[in-house]
Design the sequence.
């Protein structure tokens, strides 16, 4: 029973922290219809920027938002490489990801920055609440609601943004670029907005995960795009494809379910080295199961 | 009065200097007065689509200039011409956004050429405007604002595209075989709608069509293209006097002689 409880708590904790990644990947993978490999660099960039600032004694919230800002800059640069230099969007992402590897090392100064003795957004929030007479501890029971509050705010922000004039133009850029350009939209600019927003979310996720895991590591981004894509696809396989709000909800739930499946895989005896294989199988299932479902319903 | 649209010596070659070189536009000179409704006919590969795409800014000409309302727009990108130029393509998928709803598509079209910020796109007042704009079309779309365009038929999508092209600001309408993918009955409905919208909004229009009857029946001017050149340009009474037979005969003539001269058809 205690084991089951630990499993569920871990699923929500890790799921909510990685859900920001899912939201970021949703923007490029679903709205823009291409896997943006910048994620492999902007996710550890978020961790690196947050860690470097936390070590300097900067406020954790400030450090986390700065991490998101750094992610936005990374996304903007990928967009500029793609639009101004006319380089294929996947190659542009690979170039950004490659450059970010060195930049992340520079930002951190070494391959791994421990954050065990620095405050985090979680410890800071707990301390803040305790000043109002609560008696909370910085553990999984407080991390889950804190992450959830941040996540709901992020989801609301996204749903609101994608219902504005600019948000519609960004969505249409991914769906039918010729058409939205013929309505007077500079698609170079909307691509920049979309990629900046996507990578801001991804970097923010990296910042939160680093604080939760107690370190930022140069290797933390390896395979992260596939993780995000798996989460988005699992969400879509289960929830289907309707409105933006529904997609956002699906991406969040998809991430949580992905974490659960990974935890279960470990529980049934698979080793951490097998996790990539598990992710690959999950991706395949998420891509093919919806097709079977359609066939069965017909 | 300055003409609304003026093309001078516009030339476009594809794959220039290679064995597959195609001259799509050959020194085209064309002037449209405000209010002209020009139908464009010509065989496959004549250069009709290239002409419209060049005017819209999707293709950059190799030589020549294009001016709109007295302003040189030859080098402006598509999005900077869009405030005044609306375009509909043949494929119903091209001119609307399938994954978005009818109201979202209309909201995007309503901001044609205007800056787009963080204002809520689909408001209740906007919905009321969309209902008012859709109701006269008579396809029942006004009660389905929230459904995605992918669920519409080809004809409904082209009707929506027409509305989107003309909802705001556009003064020049470019129609590239916008009825070609529709069944005959739907094509007639959308064609009538097109004529109505063009008349109501006094839009200057270039309409490419393969239907000779439509080319003769609609508009005040007809041009025929062949091998990248305009080989026939008739208007008003001369156009009204045209017959399908005369046009078909003309088609066959140029098919063999490859003339580059502009010939005025006499009846
Ligand atoms: N993107 C392109 N690349 C290469 N050649 C092209 C391109 N677009 C058009 N062409 C060539 O230019 C010429 C004119 O083509 P265009 O599409 O303008 O003809 P059209 O009159 O619209 O024909 P259709 O009635 O078949 O639509 C053709 O020879 C065509 O092969
Ligand atoms: Mg054509």
Sequence:
């Amino acid at each position: 029973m205690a084991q089951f409880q630990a499993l569920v708590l871990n699923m929500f904790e890790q799921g909510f922290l990685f859900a920001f990644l899912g939201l970021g990947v949703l923007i490029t993978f679903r709205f823009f219809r291409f896997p943006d490999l910048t994620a492999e660099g902007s996710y550890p960039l978020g961790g690196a920027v947050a860690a470097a600032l936390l070590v300097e004694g900067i406020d954790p919230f400030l450090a986390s938002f700065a991490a998101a800002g750094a992610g936005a800059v990374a996304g903007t640069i990928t967009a500029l490489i793609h639009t101004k230099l006319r380089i294929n969007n996947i190659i542009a992402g690979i170039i950004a990801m490659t450059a970010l590897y060195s930049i992340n090392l520079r930002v951190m100064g070494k391959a791994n920055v421990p954050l065990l003795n620095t405050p985090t957004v979680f410890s800071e929030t707990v301390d803040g609440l305790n000043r109002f007479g609560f008696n909370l501890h910085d553990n999984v029971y407080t991390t889950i609601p804190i992450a959830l509050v941040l996540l709901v705010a992020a989801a609301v922000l996204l749903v609101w943004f994608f219902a504005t004039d600019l948000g519609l133009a960004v969505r249409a850029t991914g769906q039918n670029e010729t058409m939205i350009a013929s309505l007077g939209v500079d698609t170079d600019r909307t691509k920049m907005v979309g990629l900046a927003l996507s990578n801001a979310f991804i970097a923010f996720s990296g910042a939160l995960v680093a604080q939760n895991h107690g370190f930022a590591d140069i290797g933390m981004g390896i395979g992260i795009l596939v993780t995000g894509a798996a989460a988005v696809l699992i969400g879509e396989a289960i929830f289907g494809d309707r409105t933006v709000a529904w997609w956002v909800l699906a991406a969040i739930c998809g991430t949580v379910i992905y974490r659960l499946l990974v935890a279960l895989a470990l529980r049934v005896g698979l080793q951490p080295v097998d996790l990539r294989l598990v992710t690959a199988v999950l991706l395949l299932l998420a891509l093919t199961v919806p097709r079977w479902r359609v066939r069965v319903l017909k | 009065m300055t003409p609304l649209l003026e093309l001078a010596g516009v030339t476009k070659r594809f794959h220039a200097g290679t064995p597959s070189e195609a001259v799509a536009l050959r020194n085209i000179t064309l002037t449209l007065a405000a209010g002209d409704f020009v139908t464009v006919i010509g065989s496959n590969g004549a250069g009709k689509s290239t002409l419209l795409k060049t005017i819209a800014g999707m293709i950059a000409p190799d030589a020549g200039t294009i001016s709109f309302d007295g302003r040189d727009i030859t080098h402006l990108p598509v999005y900077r011409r869009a405030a005044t130029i609306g375009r509909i393509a043949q494929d119903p998928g091209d001119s609307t956004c399938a994954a978005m709803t009818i109201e979202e598509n209309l909201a995007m079209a309503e901001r044609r050429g205007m800056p787009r910020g963080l204002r809520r796109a689909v408001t209740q007042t906007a919905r009321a405007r969309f209902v008012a704009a859709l109701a006269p079309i008579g396809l029942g779309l006004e009660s389905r604002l929230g459904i995605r365009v992918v669920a519409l038929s080809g004809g409904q999508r082209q009707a929506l595209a027409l509305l989107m092209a003309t909802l705001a600001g556009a003064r020049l309408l470019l129609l590239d075989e916008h009825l070609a993918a529709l069944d005959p009955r739907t094509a007639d409905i959308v064609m009538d709608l097109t004529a109505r919208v063009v008349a109501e909004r006094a839009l200057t229009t270039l309409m490419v069509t393969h239907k000779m009857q439509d080319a003769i029946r609609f508009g005040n001017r007809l041009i025929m293209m062949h091998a990248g050149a305009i080989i026939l340009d008739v208007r008003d009474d001369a156009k009204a006097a045209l017959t399908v037979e005369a046009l078909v005969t003309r088609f066959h003539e140029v098919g063999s002689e490859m003339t580059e001269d502009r010939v005025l058809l006499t009846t």
